[in-house]
Write a structure and sequence with these properties.
The chain is mainly α and 130 residues long. It is 75% helix and 0% strand. α1 crosses α2 and α1 crosses α4. The radius of gyration is 19 Å and the shape is globular.
Length: 130
């Protein structure tokens, strides 16, 4: 039972970190490259659509368990400590989670492009074998 509580605590901390990165993206004291990378991580975290859908066994949750925490760790190293501390304080009191529909559109476009590529390849493959 203690392990479950520890996981829940980690998830709450990660949520605050992502909110803090969201706020840091808007702070002019953050270098442009850190803002760009943070925007990508936050956009993916707040996207209503996952790159790998959750119903896919194991891989569906892999992005949530690995990609987002890894992205957060990398971005935190790029942001000045004072700015990150301020953003964390503000993130704790953030009431509403933003939704990133642009990231959702990009993910949908990737899936459509992948489906089109596979369809094209299958059509060429089966026409060529006749």
């Amino acid at each position: 039972m203690r392990a479950i509580e520890a996981w829940k605590q980690q998830a709450r901390r990660l949520k605050v970190e992502v909110y803090a990165l969201y706020l840091a993206c808007k702070d002019p004291r953050v270098p442009w490259h850190a803002r760009l990378f943070a925007a990508c991580v936050v956009g993916y975290a707040f996207s209503p659509i996952d790159l790998i859908p959750d119903p896919i066994p194991i891989l569906g949750y892999l992005d949530d368990l690995v990609l987002i925490p890894l992205g957060v760790l990398l971005v935190r190293r790029m942001i000045p400590d004072t700015v990150l501390t301020e953003c964390r304080e503000r993130a704790i009191h953030l009431d509403q989670k933003p939704t990133n529909w642009v990231a959702a559109a990009v993910i949908i476009a990737v899936w459509i492009l992948l489906a089109a590529t596979v369809t094209y390849w299958l059509i060429r493959h089966f026409r060529g074998s006749n």
